[in-house]
Amino acid sequence: MASAPQPGGHDTARVHVPKRLLDALSDSPASAVRSWLDALPETVERQLTAWELTLERVVTPGGRHGLVALVRQADGTPAALKFPVPGPDADREQAALAHWDGWGAARLLRADPDTGALLIERLRSAVSLRSLPEAKALLEAAGTVRRLWVAPPEGHPFASVTGRTEEDREVMRVLGAGAWAADVRPLTDEALELRAALPAEPPEEVLLHGEFRQGKVLAGERLPWLAVGPVPVVGERAYDLARLVLDRCEDLAAGSGPAAATRRRVAKLADSLDVDRDRLRGWSLYRAVEAGLREAAVGDRRRAELLLEFAGWL
């Protein structure tokens, strides 16, 4: 999306909103989100001026939850300027990054409450843990996520795992009732039963990344690996670790004995991080089914079938 010069005097033609973000928000019913998207090039330009930043480029294809631009600060230090899609998750991302203060995650340098802009420590966006062999990637991922699991601050804004999965449960019930989902209904039922049982007696309440996986851990200068893009919640570590269990499941599917390999991954990650194996297995199955149903709903049946098959191996 290229924009003509605006009445305020900023030439927004150099700020292009990535197609991936446009597509992700194209069906949003929220008028505030649509207005935010329309104004985004101008908002970016105003923030560059306000913080005396030099634009290098907008990251493409980028993500589905915000725009990221690579910039340089007045002293020449590189940074990343992020504009999350407005909403509670954007406020929670800022709060989580501020609380971690660079411990295991990219450091938050500045935040603007009016525009929602976040100025974040620049990492090497092209180099994530997915670039490493699986065994090494899982080892580095475990060391990174361990640092993020800290007590949440007093009066925190974060949702709980119980609350977030309650919302997901209603979506799963609708998606799982479709005719196409008949073959996986036993898995869906098991996932819903696990969701009812697991949050009933959580062993701990710590701050979680929420969407921790290898692609969310990037190479840095200050530390070798740092996490980005949290969707933070408060709950038990097994919920966070379950998303990592699902990572690169296509590699397991391509190998021999994928079910046994999946169970070994669960055991290895649980033991290395002192997480209960049964709870990790339960949350992994739940998150695989939930993700699989959502992928099917948006038309990616291949990915959906892989995730649901993975859940069956558990």
Layout of secondary structure:
Layout: H1 19-25, H2 31-50, E1 54-58, E2 66-72, E3 78-84, H3 88-100, E4 108-111, E5 118-121, E6 124-128, H4 134-148, E7 159-160, H5 161-176, H6 185-197, E8 206-208, E9 217-219, E10 225-227, E11 233-235, H7 237-246, H8 249-254, H9 258-272, H10 277-297, H11 301-313
Parallel strand pairs: 7-11
Antiparallel strand pairs: 1-2, 2-3, 3-5, 4-5, 6-9, 8-11, 9-10
Could you explain the architecture of this structure?
The chain is of the alpha+beta class. It has helices at residues 19-25, 31-50, 88-100, 134-148, 161-176, 185-197, 237-246, 249-254, 258-272, 277-297, 301-313; strands spanning 54-58, 66-72, 78-84, 108-111, 118-121, 124-128, 159-160, 206-208, 217-219, 225-227, 233-235. It has 11 helices and 11 strands. The chain has a 5-stranded antiparallel beta sheet, with helices on both faces. The longest helix is centred in the C-terminal third of the chain and has 21 residues, at 277-297. It is globular and about 55 Å long. This is Aminoglycoside phosphotransferase family protein. It holds the Pfam family APH_6_hur.
